[in-house]
Amino acid sequence: MSRSLPVLTVTAVLIALWYLAVIPMNATWEYDQARRAGSELPFAEMVARTMAQERPVLPAPHQVVIGLYEQTVGCDAVGRRMCRETTPLTVQGFGQRVAAAFTSNRSLIYHAGVTLSATMLGFLIGTGGGILLAIGIVYNRAMDASVMPWAIASQTIPIIALAPMIIVVLNSVGISGLVPKAIIAAYLSFFPVVVGMVKGLRSPDAMQMDQMKTWSATGGQVFARLRLPMSMPYLFASLKIGIAAALVGTIVGELPIQQGGLGVRLLSGSYYGQTIQIWAALFAAAILAAALVGIVGLIERRVLARMGMKR
Amino acid sequence: MLDVTAEAAVIEARGLNLTFHTNDGPVHALKDVDLTIRKGEFVSFIGPSGCGKTTLLRAIADLEHPTGGSLTVNGMSPEAARKARAYGYVFQAAGLYPWRTIEGNVRLPLQIMGYSRAEQAERARKVLELVELSGFERKFPWQLSGGMQQRASIARALAFDADILLMDEPFGALDEIVRDRLNEELLKLWARTGKTIGFVTHSIPEAVYLSTKIVVMSPRPGRITDVIDSTLPAGRPLEIRDSPEFIAIAHRVREGLRAGYDDN
Q: How many domains are there within chain A?
């Protein structure tokens, strides 16, 4: 509770600044229109109009919120028939609309679902691969010397340049749909996991390793009983970054594939100058990312609490 | 005092050398060390830092490898002795795993060594009772004081019933009052179990109070300058530290330490 007040204050300040920025951003268009019509545009009138443009340079916050509603469970999103049947809107009707939104390809909920499935698959591949690579780096001298520079190099290539190539190559061997997007997501999410797990698996100090030796523990026992549990805080820190990176990777992968997803909504919005649609998709992606990171954080808290690492 | 001269030698070092090769040239951590520790003895190693007392203990535990001479533990090489679970080792830090309960920590070496679940529980119960930590089985390490944590780590070292207990400044990080109490308890534990104990310390009163034999060491190169057989009785209340006998032994230890310095 004590944390909500500062958070709300910052949010309020940001929204106020946003509204202020909307006026000069959209004013040019309004003054142009007024000059063409040969009419005077009083200041108050101009301000009001900048907040209600159909294709603003910068949509006002309330426009984005309304856009977000319209494009998830609004009439455009769920279809005319569902819209008629559920107007005026009741709680039950709202539930029907939400259910319909999951299958309507005009709804952001449907597209978020498409993005989420590829994100989760990519996150699993990336995390699994990252952990395996980290184990290799910690236990194998050759891998220790050779893998890390490549892992770092892999992250310096802009994913937007790499994504179409991955899709083309995979498509030529008959892999399309969910998997190429997931692989792009995995490409971004494995890296923080590798870095975190290498650090985590190496976190036992010399004394702890000596202690294991006095018990003549095998390598497997040292791993299972000491290295792996000690790496858990590092793993979860990495997973939070990794799942957000997987979401970014999926959205980038969706741009060239054009088979649904938040990335498609972003791109089509920019094709047709639908700025409100872009911002709505952007916020949908942000909400999705926040939810995913939040879930990982929740699991982290419970696991570490059970392990006695958080008091 | 108990007569140990008739007992068999448990740890035997002859002309032991151990040299570390560093960037600044070789460091003679141990030079020509001769030492016999017999069954049931309580042997303290005392000396300034760099005298090799910890290195000697670690060599006995097969954590360091001598570069010359011979060293046997229970008549075997240190490696064979380690694999035969000849000793329990207590480090300066308790080193308990924060994600395991006290009982879980004591069970850890037993799990690694493949004891059955029932056996683990039974042994954990017994050694926790021995260090007076019964009732704390379900607590996590952070819920215990530093002294209690170190007691738990002693219980862990005792859990698999090794005949030798090697302790590397186990109470070095604790305050004087807690240390006194743990010293008293350690003596009781030693009397009850009849273990052979090797104990590294840099406290003269601690060494004199606990030991039947005090090994005084000096640095550069690390070597033994004096071995003092204690004349104190087996039953030792803390007050014994004010007796003339105690003070005389402490004086001889101090002389030995000073002699080691004068050589340099």
A: 2
Q: Which of A208, A309, A311 sits opposite B95 (nearest CB)?
A: A208
Shared domain for A167 and A135, answered yes or no, is yes
Which pair of structure tokens corresponds to residue B54?
A: 């910890």
In chain A, residues with a C-beta closer than 8 Å to the C-beta of B89 are 210-211, 214
A274/A144 Cα distance (integer angstroms): 49
Look at B113 and A213 and tell me if their CB atoms are within 8 Å.
no
Residues B156/B107, Cβ–Cβ less than 8 Å: no
pLDDT band for position A73 (50/70/90)?
A: confident
Which residues of B fall within a CB distance of 8 Å from A232?
A: 99
A114 belongs to a structural domain = yes
Q: What is the model's pTM?
A: 0.83
* Rounded mean pLDDT, B250-264: 79
Facing residue for B140 by CB, picked from A214, A215, A308: A308
Domains of chain B: 1-86+166-172+198-264 (3.40.50.300), 87-161 (no CATH)
User: Do residues B86 and B164 touch, judged by C-beta distance below 8 A?
Assistant: yes
The label of the residue with tokens 């106020």 reads A16
**C-alpha–C-alpha distance, residues A107 and A277, integer Å:** 11
For residues A199 and A264, membership in a common domain is answered with yes
Residues A280 and A185 in one domain: yes
- If asked whether residues A153 and A283 sit together in one domain, one would say yes
Q: What is the ipTM of this complex?
A: 0.88
Segment A231-241, tens digit of pLDDT = 999 999 999 99
What DSSP assignment string belongs to B208-246? HHH-SEEEEEETTTTEEEEEEE--S-SS--GGGGGSHHH
Range of the domain at A139: 108-306
Q: Are residues A139 and A196 in the same domain?
A: yes
A301 touches chain B (CB under 8 A): no
Considering the domain architecture, whether residues A135 and A214 belong to the same structural domain is answered as yes
Report the pLDDT value the prediction gives residue A67, as an integer from 0 to 100.
92
- Cα separation, A129 vs A146, in Å, equals 16
